[in-house]
Write a structure and sequence with these properties.
The chain has eleven helices and 13 strands. The two termini are about 25 Å apart. The model has no long low-confidence stretch (mean pLDDT about 90). The strands form three sheets. Strands 8, 9, 10, 11, 12 and 13 form a six-stranded antiparallel beta sheet that branches. The protein folds into three domains: about 90 residues, Rossmann fold, CATH 3.40.50; about 120 residues, ATP-grasp fold, B domain (D-amino Acid Aminotransferase, Chain A, domain 1, 2-Layer Sandwich); about 60 residues, 2-Layer Sandwich (Dna Ligase, domain 1). The chain is globular and about 60 Å long. By secondary structure, it is α+β, with helices and mostly antiparallel strands.
């Protein structure tokens, strides 16, 4: 679609921040900043810190492009601040951002709706680790529920690895879960303006699609078209939209899922501020759909909203 960029006014591209995903956010943010400038948007990069309120107020910005990954930027915090400032912003609102950032809450909502997601056990003690081994068959994936980019995650293949993996995840803060390991093919579905873009199949030589596989490895494969039949991709697209809408996510984002050997899909997580780096998945899917990186950034900005502004 053709977008009149003059409607945006002065745009703050919010990046960096204080989370464990700061460096990736800076890469994403600078890519978005460059794309918006290429399209003539009056965009300015802001490395978010504790002075963000005064920076936004002093800068007379009209709207914000949120490209902060992780806590403080993807969890409803910055969204709530922008609502108080009556400043339109990109992506999901406060509640959806908070829910999607919490892998446990997301799974609980999906289960309540009858959507497929791997079984799990909350780990809060060594005894709960023993319970996880009894309730769930090895291997397991251990996750801190409030981190992204696979930070703090471990695959557990032997019983004596579990306590170490739990303690590693604990260091991230918040709740930790053990989840049944699903053996199968991993896919991601990018959602843009209520449409699912061409899906991407992920292949890695690592134990799982971890931080290194996502951002540093050169041998990770991104297959798009993904190899699914048209009917299969259509079914999985509908499931992805249902999973996305379940947490009230909006505008743009990504749903990750695994398809096992019986062609059963298992929902893993929703990402409401996906990466926008050279290795990132949403830009790849958009390119397959015929949309350039610059156009993708402008289209995301065009969907910026603010509940308190209306």
């Amino acid at each position: 679609m053709t977008v009149d960029v003059t409607q945006f006014g002065k745009v703050a591209v919010l990046m960096g921040g204080l989370s464990a995903e700061r460096e990736i956010s800076l890469l994403s943010g600078n890519a978005v900043l460059s794309a918006l400038k290429n399209r003539g948007v009056d965009a300015h990069g802001i490395d978010v810190d504790e002075n963000i309120v005064s920076v936004l107020s002093a800068g007379n910005y009209q709207r914000a492009f949120i490209i902060l990954h992780g806590r403080g930027g993807e969890d409803g915090t910055i969204q709530g601040l922008l609502e108080l400032l009556s400043m339109p912003y990109t992506g999901s609102g406060v509640m959806a951002s908070s829910l999607a950032m919490d892998k446990l809450k997301t799974k609980q909502i999906w289960l309540a709706m009858g959507l497929p997601t791997p079984e799990f056990v909350i780990l809060d003690s060594e005894k709960s680790c023993e319970h996880a081994l009894e309730a769930l068959a090895l291997p397991l994936i251990i996750k801190p529920v409030l981190e992204g980019s696979s930070i703090g995650m471990s695959k557990v293949e032997k019983e004596d690895e579990l306590i170490t993996a739990w303690k590693k995840a604990q260091q991230c803060g918040g709740t930790v879960i053990a989840e049944s390991w699903i053996e199968g093919d991993e896919y991601t579905a990018a959602v843009l303006d209520d449409q699912v873009l061409p899906m991407i199949k992920l292949k890695t030589t690592h134990k799982f699609y971890d931080y290194d596989a996502k951002y540093e490895a050169d041998d990770t494969q991104y297959i798009c078209p993904c190899g699914l039949s048209e009917s299969e991709e259509s079914v999985f697209a509908e499931l992805s939209k249902e999973a996305f809408n379940a947490v009230n996510a909006s505008a743009w984002g990504r749903v990750d899922f695994i398809v096992d050997e019986n062609d059963q899909p298992w929902l893993i997580e929703v990402n409401t501020v996906p990466g926008m780096t050279s290795h990132s998945l949403v830009p790849m899917a958009a390119q397959q759909a015929g949309m350039s990186f610059d156009d993708l950034a402008v289209n995301i900005l065009a969907m910026s909203t603010c509940v308190s502004c209306s």
